[in-house]
Design brief:
12% strand, two-stranded antiparallel ribbon, alpha/beta, 370 residues, eight-stranded parallel sheet, TIM Barrel, binds (2S)-2-hydroxyoctanoic acid
């Protein structure tokens, strides 16, 4: 039996051989010509660390604190929808891995399994709920209320999906996971959504989701109303401009996720790592700043943390682990990321996640000395 792939490139290759072209293409690809998918990686490669030596790095503290709760690692599971495309146990396997590893899990609105089932599968996991706004706002509020009732601890509102990105790979493969029923979990268990359908046919569910999941009218008033109605911390995911970060704070938002949706929405948009420093500067510690999009190895996480992120969220790598070997595959991928991060913190000359902010990190086309 071949050993479990150690790096992202090998993981992706193994998954390409294991699952069908349609689902693989959906998970792997970026929008348009994949410039942003590529640039997310290139951005990490532009940075180098200049390590310091000759002080004790035998004890490494990888813990972080978010919303008053301590977590042993600076990782989160990014919200990735429709996990049954990768493995039959889908989100249930992922949340069990999250519980085992004590890594917060962000469940997507467009999940294959209902949030209540996910909550039951891993009661001790820290769980946040990613919300796609809905054309019918009552569906959005209903999902947020269900998440709160099921013990989810934060709501992550995605702001960059007012419509679906230009996804050429899926057109090429004539692949639509929605039309294959992979996004039924939360919708078909939502009383407001199901009551809005003319009948309980499969076609009505597909049309219902399509009419609701994209919401070009989403605006700051919606954000304020969500914040007013919810008892949970609210994070905005998809922030790339420092002025939007400032507006988030002015609107009492509790955290932001610097993200370009893994390069899957607007192609040609800034790499999330390149957007990070200006946002960190603007936010200046007032709320947590989490980064996702292109974090494929422990050293990527280290660079994002050194540039001021409070935590990083992982997407494609865990989905590939899931595709290869269910819960165990997810655990293996995340453990590898963690082990690489831990050894890299020590080799860089730091002893904690916060301490990474004091190391020297330089950018190829200019010096960004922390
Ligand atoms: C069923 C509609 O976040 C992705 C998702 C997009 C969600 C819309 C899917 O694949 O990037």
């Amino acid at each position: 039996q071949a050993p479990f792939p150690i790096c992202f490139t090998d993981l992706e290759k193994a998954v390409a051989e294991k699952i069908e072209t349609g689902p693989f293409g959906y998970i792997r690809s970026g929008a348009g010509g994949e410039q942003t998918l590529h640039n997310n990686r290139a951005a990490f490669e532009k940075y180098s660390i200049i390590p310091r030596f000759l002080h004790d790095v035998s004890n490494i503290d990888t813990s972080i604190e978010l919303f008053g709760k301590t977590h042993p690692t600076p990782f989160l599971f990014a919200p990735v929808g429709m996990n049954r495309m990768a493995h039959d146990e889908g989100e249930l396997a992922v949340v069990r891995a999250a519980e085992q590893l004590k890594i917060p899990y962000i469940q997507s609105t467009v999940s294959s399994y209902a949030l209540e089932d996910v909550a039951q599968a891993a009661p001790a996991a820290t769980k946040w709920f990613q919300l796609y706004w809905s054309t019918n706002e009552d569906i959005a509020y209903s999902m947020a209320d269900r998440a709160e009732a099921a013990g989810f601890e934060a709501i992550v509102l995605t702001v960059d999906t007012v419509m679906l990105g230009w996804r050429e790979e899926d057109v090429r493969n004539q692949f639509s996971p929605l039309k294959l029923g992979y996004a039924r979990g939360n919708y078909m268990n939502d009383p407001v959504f199901t009551a809005s359908l003319p009948d309980n046919s499969f076609e009505s569910y597909v049309q219902g989701v399509l009419q609701n999941v994209f919401h070009p009218t989403l605006n700051w008033e919606n954000v304020r109303e969500l914040k007013r109605r919810s008892n949970l911390p609210i994070l905005l995911k998809g922030i790339l401009h420092p002025e939007d970060a400032e507006l988030a704070i002015e609107n009492n938002i509790d955290g932001i996720i610097v993200s370009n949706h893994g390069g899957r929405q607007l192609d040609g948009v800034i790499a999330s790592l390149d957007a990070l420093p200006a946002i960190v500067k603007t936010v200046n510690g007032r709320i947590p700043v989490i980064l996702d999009s292109g974090v494929y190895r422990g050293m990527d996480a280290l660079k994002a943390l050194a540039l001021g992120a409070d935590a990083v969220a992982i997407g494609r790598p865990f989905v590939y682990g899931l595709a290869l070997n269910g819960q165990q595959g997810v655990e293996k991928v995340m453990t590898n990321l963690y082990d690489e991060l831990k050894v890299s913190i020590a080799l860089a000359g730091a002893t904690s996640v916060k301490g990474l902010r004091n190391i020297t990190i330089v950018k190829k086309d200019g010096v960004d000395d922390q």
